[in-house]
Design goal:
Elements (H helix, E strand, L loop, with lengths): L1 E5 L3 H13 L3 E5 L2 H10 L4 E5 L7 H11 L5 E6 L3 H9 L4 E5 L3 H17 L3 E4 L2 E4 L4 E4 L2 E3 L3 H11 L6 E2 H12 L5 H15 L9 E4 L3 E4 L2
Parallel strand pairs: 1-2, 1-3, 3-4, 4-5
Antiparallel strand pairs: 6-7, 7-8, 8-9, 10-12, 11-12
């Protein structure tokens, strides 16, 4: 698997590059927007890890170019832990995930492998009833009308819709959104997030037909 690492911190490039190589990845690292665009034009990558802020250019421009040259390639943004704007903007541009700095190395590897599995085996457009999620553009529509979700709400819905028809336990959901919430997700907090999401995706939130509660276990989307 070939990884494009776009990061201008030499220490991160060295440590992360070594880690990825020990895990069997072929890594091409660059610290500038222009060189990243050249690499995308010259060769194929399986996944890209993009820092938002670069000494020359920015990760958003690289993401936009990647969406044109390699629309199915998963992209993970590396962002400052308190940079909510970059997180939301990255997901809106079609990134599949983001990792807040400083990140845990093993978690990053796990998230990379999850993104690669998703890219290989998951439909990029998922439809349940009149709800449509485009994982490439991170756009969600209901009956043709675009819904505006927070980064946390989007990740929660994506986790559920990727497993449409299957039980998703509460622990699975809490793990999926932990980084978005930037804190441990309690059962009460998850209840609140599900309620807010239902208010946006359900025709009648008091009688949900899309996000179904499986009492005592979790939730599932669809039949």
């Amino acid at each position: 698997m070939r990884v494009l690492l776009v990061e201008d911190d030499a220490a991160i490039i060295g440590a992360l590059g070594d880690l990825l190589r020990t895990e069997g990845f072929d890594v091409v690292a660059t610290g500038t927007q222009s060189d990243a665009l050249a690499q995308l034009s010259a060769q194929r990558f399986d996944i890209a890890l993009l820092d938002v802020t670069l000494a020359e250019g920015n990760g958003f421009a690289v993401c936009a170019a990647a969406r044109k040259t390699a629309p199915s390639m998963p992209i993970i943004f590396l962002t400052a832990s308190d940079d909510e704007y970059s997180t939301v903007a990255g997901l809106d541009m079609g990134a599949v995930d983001y990792i807040a700095k400083p990140f845990r190395a093993r978690e990053l590897i796990s998230r990379i492998r999850a993104a690669l599995r998703q890219s290989a085996g998951t439909e990029r457009i998922i439809t349940v009833g009149d709800l449509r999620l485009d994982a490439t553009s991170a756009q969600v529509t209901k009956a043709g009308r675009e819904l505006f979700l927070s980064a946390l709400e989007y990740r929660l819905l994506l986790c559920l819709m990727q497993r449409a028809g299957k039980l998703v336990t509460r622990e699975n959901l809490k793990d999926a959104i932990w980084d978005s919430a930037d804190e441990y997700v309690s059962d009460n907090a998850l209840n609140v997030y599900i309620k807010r999401l239902r208010e946006k995706v359900e025709t009648n939130p008091s009688d949900p037909q899309i996000i179904i509660t499986v009492r005592g276990m979790g939730y599932k989307v669809g039949a």
